[in-house]
Each structure stands twice: as structure tokens, then as C-alpha cells.
Amino acid sequence: MASQDWFDKDFYKVLGVSKDVSEADLKKQYRKLARQYHPDSNPGDASAEAKFKEISEANSVLSDPEQRKEYDQIRAMGSGARFTAGGQGQSGGFEDVFGGMFGGGGRGGGASNANYSFQQAGYDDLLGGMFGGNQGFGQPSGGFRGFGGPTRGRDISARTTVDFVTATKGDTIKLQTSDGGTITVKIPAGVSDGQKIKLRGKGEKSPDGGEAGDIVLTVSVRKHPVFERDGLNLRVNVPVTFVEATLGATIEVPTLGGDPVKLRVGAGTPSGRVLRVKGRGVETAKGTGDLLAVVQVAVPSHLSAEAREALEAFHALEPQENPRAELLAKAHE
Predict the structure, then answer these.
(1) Using one digit for the tens of pLDDT, what is the confidence trace for 107-159?
(2) What is the pLDDT of residues 244-254, one digit of tens each?
(3) Listed residue (62, 67, 61) closest to 128, CA to CA
């Protein structure tokens, strides 16, 4: 948008706000109007589309503190100023507004002299912004570009739930968008519950040809009936019998998505001891975890008469030690 337009357009009126509107209220009002007049909400409505472009232009200037300051200054100079084509032997310029500022330039002052005077006075940033530097008044952005550049589309928040295996090993899934479309999402191996994945350029489109926003996807992970995450490790509770824990045994331990592995339980292994299987945890680019098998001694709930008799005989022969003696002693320290 050329600076000439700033004399003709009341951006505050376009957005329906006062000249002392705060940044927060300005943003709130713009979003309200953008939703109301967005082309997607008004298909085929040329007047709505024109209004949408108008409020986008106004917001691109007023939402930028520096541009808003320049706009207010230029509007305060008077709406009667115009670019003049210049007569024979004259160059065009903002003569109605800036003639007095340059001093000695008068109404016949040339544009080159005006430019020089502006730089000497320290107003080169303002002039550069108004004339667009060497790039003219427009830039190839898919639409006319304001002083702050095209507006970036807004980010969109979304959620999805994946199963434990997908989160651990990674996979590519398809998600349905609110408008009925689908997007492909790569779930990285080792994604954790509540982790956010940014899908660049998949968010809301820019209203004026700028960069699209992102989708910020929050991933929820369903619990697994057997395994749970412990960093890069996988933890699994493994029941063993009283005899296996006492005398020792070789047992099978499940792995995630693979065949069981054999693991040696040493004689006298207590409940709660962790046995480690190297390299069978979560595989990521940062490393690979282990499988942690937590021993849980299973106590039989039903005994035959013969088994009870044998157990009582064992109890009569076992060492007369109180396994809670140390616990009781420490409790009184």
C-alpha cells in the first residue's frame, strides 16, 4: 500500500476503533472483523472480500507501533496533500505538506532535493518507508504488501491420541481437519504423553498472501496393559512363583512388539528386584533404552492339603529370622 493512501483512508474508522485504542483491543477488534468478513465465511461475496482486504490493510499498519506512529504523523499533516505530477521543469513531490519543512524548497522544490533534505534532517526512515525504497510501492507477495509485510496466518492448536506402540516405535498417521480434509503426520519414535509436535505451514492461511501458520499438535498416549515408559526404558512387572524366587529359575519376559526373551532369576531373588535386558527399550535418534523387568513374587491363594503340609514342614526347618527386624529397628532411630 503506497503512503499516498494514508491521506485518504481512516484506518481507525475502518476497524471501528478510537485513535487511542490499545494494542490488545485493536487485536481483539481485528480478529472479530476478520472472522466476520473472511472469504471462507462469505463464499462468492465480493463486498465481504473487499471489506476483508480493507480491514487487513488497516490492521497491517495500526498493529505495528512504528507504522502507526508514521501514519498518525502523516494524517496529522492534513488530508489535502497529494503527489503532484509536476509541471515543465518541475519534479513531483509532497509539496503541500512538506514544502515548508524543507526550507527554501518552496512549491518548486525537486524530489531529489527533498530526499536529501529528509536524510539530513534524520527522517530517512520515514521517507524510505513512504516511497518503498528501491522496490516501489508493491512487493510480490501474492497480494499487495503493506509496510509490515504480509500477515502470517494464525497457529492452530489440535490434539490426537495414539496407542502405546505407535508412540514408542513411531509411525505415520492421517488426521482429519475441521473442514473435512486430511493431513499426514509423522509421529516420531519415543513421543511422550502430552508432547507437542509442530506441523509447519499447516495452520491458518494468511489473509494477504503471507506465510501460513502452524498446527501445534498435542499427543496423548494410551496406556499399555503391560508396559510403561521410564524415560527411554520400558518397565514391565514379571510375576515369579515363590519356589522360582527361592531356588532360582529361567523365565520368559515379554518384549514390546517382539518375541519373549529368556531371563535368569537368581536364587533368593526378592520381590521388587529389577532385572535389566539391554537394548530392548525405546529406540530414538538420541539413543536406545533397556527393558526393566521388575520381579513380583506371586503368593498362591489356594493350597491343597498336601501342599500346606509340605509348606508347614518347610517353615519348621527354615532359619528363624524375622525379615522385619531391621525395619522395626530403623523406625525407632
Answers:
(1) 343 333 333 333 333 333 333 333 333 333 333 333 344 445 788 999 989 89
(2) 999 999 999 99
(3) 67
pLDDT at residue number 26: 92
Q: Which of helix, strand or coil describes residue 264?
A: strand
One DSSP character per residue, 143-201 reads: S---TT-SPPPPPEEEEEEE-HHHHHH-EEEEEE-TTS-EEEEEE-TTPPTT-EEEETT
What's the whole-model pTM score?
0.51
Give the three-state DSSP class for 252.
strand
pLDDT score, position 286: 86
Neighbours of 35 (CB within 10 A): 10
Other CB atoms within 10 Å distance of the CB of residue 233: 18
Residue pointed to by grid coordinates 508347614: 312
Which segments in the chain show pLDDT lower than 50? 1-2, 79-147
Please give the C-alpha separations between residue 269 and each of 85, 262, 291, 319, in angstroms, as whole numbers: 97, 16, 18, 17
Q: Are 260 and 288 in contact (CB under 8 A)?
A: no
Alpha-carbon torsion angle 65, 67, 69, 72, nearest 10: -130
pLDDT at 94: 38
Considering only CA atoms, which of 238, 239, 226 is closest in space to residue 299? 239
Measured distance between the N- and C-terminal CA atoms of the chain, rounded to whole angstroms: 80
For the beta sheet containing 274-277, the strands, ordered from the edge strand earlier in sequence to the opposite edge, are 227-230, 233-241, 291-298, 274-277
H or E stretch covering 73: helix 65-77
Contacts of 147 (CB under 8 A, 6+ apart): 1, 60, 61, 64, 67, 70, 129
Neighbours of 34 (CB within 10 A): 17
Which own/partner contact pairs does 174-178 have at CB distance under 8 Å and 24+ positions apart? 175/217
129: phi then psi, degrees, rounded to nearest 5: -70, -35
